[in-house]
């Protein structure tokens, strides 16, 4: 790998200390056993996952719109900037474009430190995010312009794409970008006959690992949708699954997405109320200023009248003369 | 649905909310989109209904309390900062559309659009300088990436300008429709001045301009 | 004004001037131009961020506040913004700290790794600090590799920490020439509203102060490494470095020092971050950096150093 000269680099051969802890050496079966045991301890909470989402708008002062979303331990911030011209493009595009970038913080993953330079996973997530939010935005309203959407994953504890889509949808709403509908997303990890709605990192990792000995269902599905219009904007499935299983998963995910909507709506309404109040304060001060300006204007008019009278009298006298 | 009817704010809309059916009496305005016979909200904001007397329709629109991500439309008055002046065109950056701040867009002002009269004898150098803040109107879009502007109206032209060599923040004062003067260094520079309420003025000063002007007849008046 | 008269012949204008001007006033009440008058008459901090005048004519906007001995956000010249600190919010990092200086938000997360020490320095561990200015924190930053500005900030922060002797690198060594800790401290700016360096230093010190190292046993013969995460020893730290940044606004008579500048103030004072950063640790200066901006007399520099020192006490 080429050396990154723009950052400080540690020694090349450094490894996370976690490699030397007893946990690291566990086999697939052991991990699976642990996971199932843990899940048995937890009660069935698939239905109330939607309640465990925390969302907030207007978190970044410098951005046009921004949002912060927390699902379980996954934390994502997202900011949206105003439309800008598409750099290096000569063709006229009738639809506006959306540029997405998803990045992981170097400390976001619990195992190894992530190198700060973007890797393939970042790029894949960026593309997935773009495809998910593009159908939700009224792109015909800003032809030939580009909206930048940046998502930053501060902590990754599974279903980070779903969190990023939720955050991006909120940030776009906060930035007052015209949208067809609120976008919500949810994800699920499938392992054999177990379905983990909104999986955490362990569950996701296990579901992604393919078992060579056995031919079982495994994979991760992320689904995003526009609930009011009942349209699915993106469906991303990684892994190998049976058709019946996928259909069943879709139903569950659709329900999850719909359950998320009231949550997101609450956040948006709160945001609107806050902004309207701020706008009212602005209007009040603007009114005061306008009064001052009106006064000034009247004074100006008066002096102009006086002046024109002077002009008139001057020209009158000159005529007389 | 999420409809808060608290009085001072009005009806709050969020994107995707179905507002009403679209028909001959009701059409969707800004901030909404029409899908399959219904008007949906496209922005998070406050619902506004407006009666259009002429066409006998009600325009349903959603107003966002934050500045909507608007683009300049033909006919809008924009505030722009001049960046480049050459013998044919003036380049500028659009800062405000109407009273709203926007992300900077590029604007271009052709020589013949600077003034409405005497189009052949316009010299852009005598109308604008880089750094001036101007008011201009948007012309129909003909080119990608550029908004064509015009200042061929009395109310349009230079609003704020700093004389060459004066420190930043010291604005020139208009002394005629084609000339401005720096209050510190008393340097006069030609500009295409916008007719707007001046920054500072007092009654005596306005009259004294007239006096001065009467003594030394219009120097810059091309008529 | 005279130009109003010149336009249409004076005689005609006299009769119609009233009507024209009334029209005019309504026309301009709805354009941003009228915003230009506001600053001379009114100071309202609540809406200062949304003031069109700030964009149209920033210099005049800024000076009109400075002339009144107040900053656009309502602070005095030597007043800091509120500081908020939140420790260990991120579970995936070893330790973490979230710091807010007003709107400026910075997160520092540490990661622990093991590596062999450098051959020329076998008794020392590694402390690697990086500052990322991600594009989401400000419209000025574009995606891609770190800009020059980001590299400068990264360098400044790492210099201050290294020179303050906050951490003895010898403490990070486990077995001489064989094994040492590598401390990755990644500082991410989530919201850049000025004075990133101070916030970075605060976040970094906070997360290092709470850091504890797991015990490691190293078998020199088999080269086997065993880590016991249940048995942790907290890292020794020395003092508490504090950086204080100022922006220098070159006013007519004398420059003005603005403590803890926000983005707008930084822009007005040269554009590339704060102009002078003074860092203290344990009563020792561990770095003064003057970068760009207005000129500064020796008295003022002394004043800045004094103000920074008072802050550390």
Automatic annotation (TrEMBL), chain A:
Localization per Swiss-Prot or TrEMBL: Cytoplasm; Nucleus
Keyword field contains Cell division: no
Gene Ontology CC terms: cytoplasmic exosome (RNase complex); nuclear exosome (RNase complex); nucleolus
Repressor recorded as keyword: no
Keywords: Cytoplasm, Exosome, Nucleus, RNA-binding, rRNA processing
GO molecular function, one term: RNA binding
All copies of domain Exoribonuclease phosphorolytic, residue ranges: 51-178
Gene3D superfamilies: GHMP Kinase, N-terminal domain (3.30.230.70)
GO process terms (BP): nuclear mRNA surveillance; poly(A)-dependent snoRNA 3'-end processing; rRNA catabolic process; rRNA processing; U4 snRNA 3'-end processing
InterPro entries: ExoRNase_PH_dom1 (IPR001247), ExoRNase_PH_dom2_sf (IPR036345), PNPase/RNase_PH_dom_sf (IPR027408), Ribosomal_Su5_D2-typ_SF (IPR020568), RNase_PH (IPR050080)
Pfam family, one: RNase_PH
PANTHER family, sorted: EXOSOME COMPLEX COMPONENT, EXOSOME COMPLEX COMPONENT MTR3
Entry similarity comment: Belongs to the RNase PH family.
Protein name as it appears in the record: Exosome complex component MTR3
Species in which this protein is naturally found: Papilio xuthus (Asian swallowtail butterfly)
Automatic annotation (TrEMBL), chain B:
Keyword Magnesium: no
Domain Exosome complex component CSL4 C-terminal: 104-139
GO molecular function, one term: RNA binding
Major subcellular site: nucleus
Domain Exosome complex component N-terminal: 12-48
Annotated Pfam families: ECR1_N (PF14382), EXOSC1 (PF10447)
CC terms in the record's Gene Ontology section: cytoplasm; nuclear exosome (RNase complex); nucleolus
Subcellular location: Nucleus, Nucleolus
GO BP of this protein: RNA processing
UniProtKB keywords: Cytoplasm, Exosome
PANTHER family reported for this sequence: 3'-5' EXORIBONUCLEASE CSL4-RELATED, EXOSOME COMPLEX COMPONENT CSL4
Protein name as annotated: Exosome complex component CSL4
Native source organism of the sequence: Papilio xuthus (Asian swallowtail butterfly)
From TrEMBL, chain C:
GO cellular component terms attached to this protein's record: cytoplasmic exosome (RNase complex); nuclear exosome (RNase complex); nucleolus
Keywords: Cytoplasm, Exosome, Nucleus, RNA-binding, rRNA processing
Species this chain originates from: Papilio xuthus
Record bears the keyword rRNA processing: yes
Biological process terms in GO annotation: exonucleolytic trimming to generate mature 3'-end of 5.8S rRNA from tricistronic rRNA transcript (SSU-rRNA, 5.8S rRNA, LSU-rRNA); nuclear mRNA surveillance; nuclear polyadenylation-dependent rRNA catabolic process; rRNA catabolic process; TRAMP-dependent tRNA surveillance pathway; U1 snRNA 3'-end processing; U4 snRNA 3'-end processing; U5 snRNA 3'-end processing
Single GO MF annotation: mRNA 3'-UTR AU-rich region binding
UniProt xrefs under SUPFAM superfamilies: Ribonuclease PH domain 2-like, Ribosomal protein S5 domain 2-like
Subcellular location(s) per record: Cytoplasm; Nucleus, Nucleolus
One Pfam family it belongs to: RNase_PH_C
The protein, known as: Ribosomal RNA-processing protein 43
KW Iron (keyword) present: no
Domain annotation Exoribonuclease phosphorolytic: ranges: 79-214, 239-311
Top-level lineage group: Eukaryota
């Amino acid at each position: 790998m080429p050396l990154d000269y723009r950052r400080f680099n540690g020694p090349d051969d450094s490894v996370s200390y976690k490699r030397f802890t007893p946990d690291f050496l566990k086999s697939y079966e052991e991990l699976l056993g642990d996971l199932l045991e843990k899940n048995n301890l937890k009660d069935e909470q698939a239905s109330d996952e939607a309640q465990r989402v925390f969302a907030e708008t207007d978190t970044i002062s410098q951005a046009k719109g921004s949002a912060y979303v927390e699902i379980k331990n996954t934390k994502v911030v997202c900011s949206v900037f105003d439309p800008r011209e598409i750099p290096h493009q000569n063709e006229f595009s009738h639809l506006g474009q959306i540029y997405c970038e998803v990045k992981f913080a170097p400390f976001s993953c619990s195992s190894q430190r992530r190198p700060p330079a973007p890797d393939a996973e970042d790029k894949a997530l960026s593309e997935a995010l773009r495809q998910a939010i593009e159908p939700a935005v009224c792109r015909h309203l800003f032809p030939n312009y580009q909206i930048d959407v940046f998502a930053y994953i501060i902590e990754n504890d599974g279903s980070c794409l779903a969190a990023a889509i939720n955050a991006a949808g909120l940030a776009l709403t906060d930035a007052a970008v015209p949208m067809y509908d609120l976008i919500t997303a949810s994800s699920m990890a499938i392992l054999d006959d177990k379905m983990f709605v909104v999986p955490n990192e362990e569950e996701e990792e296990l579901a992604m690992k393919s078992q060579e000995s056995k031919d079982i269902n495994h994979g991760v599905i992320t689904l995003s949708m526009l609930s009011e219009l009942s349209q699915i904007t993106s469906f991303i499935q990684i892994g190998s699954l049976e058709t019946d299983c996928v259909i069943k998963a879709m139903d569950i995910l659709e329900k999850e997405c719909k359950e998320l909507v009231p949550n997101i709506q609450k956040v948006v309404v709160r945001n609107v109320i806050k902004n309207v109040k701020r706008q009212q304060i602005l209007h009040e001060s603007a009114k005061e200023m306008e009064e001052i300006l009106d006064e000034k204007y009247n004074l100006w008019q008066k002096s102009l009248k006086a002046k024109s009278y002077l002009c008139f009298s001057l020209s009158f006298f000159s005529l007389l003369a | 649905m999420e409809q808060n009817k608290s009085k001072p704010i009005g009806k709050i809309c969020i994107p995707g909310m179905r507002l009403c059916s679209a028909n001959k009496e009701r059409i969707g305005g800004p901030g909404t989109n029409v899908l399959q016979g219904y008007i949906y909200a496209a922005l998070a904001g406050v619902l506004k209904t407006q009666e259009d007397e002429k066409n006998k329709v009600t325009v349903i629109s959603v107003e966002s309390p934050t500045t909507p991500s608007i683009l300049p439309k033909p006919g809008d008055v924009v505030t722009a900062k001049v960046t480049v002046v050459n013998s044919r065109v003036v380049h500028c950056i659009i800062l405000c559309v109407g009273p709203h701040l926007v992300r900077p867009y590029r604007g271009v002002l052709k020589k013949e659009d600077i003034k409405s009269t005497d189009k052949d004898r316009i010299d852009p150098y005598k109308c604008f300088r880089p750094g001036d803040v101007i008011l201009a109107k948007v012309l129909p879009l003909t080119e990608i990436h550029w908004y064509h502007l015009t200042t061929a109206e009395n109310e349009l032209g230079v609003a704020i300008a700093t004389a060459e060599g004066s420190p930043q923040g010291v604005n020139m004062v208009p002394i005629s429709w084609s000339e401005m003067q720096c209050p510190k260094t008393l340097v006069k520079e030609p500009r295409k001045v916008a007719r707007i309420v001046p920054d500072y003025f007092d009654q005596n000063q306005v009259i004294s301009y007239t006096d001065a002007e009467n003594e030394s007849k219009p120097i810059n008046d091309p008529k | 004004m005279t130009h109003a008269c010149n336009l249409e012949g004076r005689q005609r204008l006299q009769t119609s001037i009233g009507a024209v001007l009334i029209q005019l006033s309504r026309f301009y009440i709805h354009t941003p131009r009228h915003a230009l008058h506001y600053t001379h008459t009114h100071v309202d901090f609540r809406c200062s961020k949304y003031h069109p005048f700030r964009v149209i004519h920033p210099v005049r906007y800024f000076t009109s506040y400075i002339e009144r001995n107040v900053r656009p956000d309502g602070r005095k010249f030597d007043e800091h913004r509120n500081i908020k600190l939140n420790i260990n919010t991120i579970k995936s990092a070893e330790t973490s700290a979230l710091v807010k200086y007003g709107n400026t938000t910075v997160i520092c997360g540490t990661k622990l790794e093991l590596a062999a020490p450098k051959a020329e320095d076998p008794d020392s561990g590694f402390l690697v600090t990086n500052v990322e200015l991600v594009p989401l924190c400000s419209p000025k930053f574009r995606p891609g590799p770190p800009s020059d500005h980001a590299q400068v900030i990264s360098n400044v922060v790492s210099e201050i920490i290294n020179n303050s002797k906050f951490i003895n690198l010898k403490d990070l060594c486990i077995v001489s020439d064989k094994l040492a800790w590598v401390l990755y401290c990644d500082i991410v700016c989530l919201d850049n509203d000025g004075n990133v360096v101070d916030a970075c230093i605060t976040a970094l010190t906070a997360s290092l102060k709470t850091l504890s190292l797991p015990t490691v046993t190293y078998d020199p013969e088999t080269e086997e490494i065993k880590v016991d995460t249940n048995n942790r020893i907290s890292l020794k730290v020395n003092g508490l470095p504090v950086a204080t940044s100022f922006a220098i606004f070159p006013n007519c008579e004398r420059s003005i020092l603005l403590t803890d500048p926000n983005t707008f103030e930084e822009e007005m004072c040269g554009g590339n971050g704060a102009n002078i950063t003074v860092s203290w640790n344990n009563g020792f200066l561990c770095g003064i950096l003057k970068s760009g901006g207005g000129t500064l007399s020796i008295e003022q520099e002394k004043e800045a150093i004094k103000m920074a020192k008072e802050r550390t006490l």
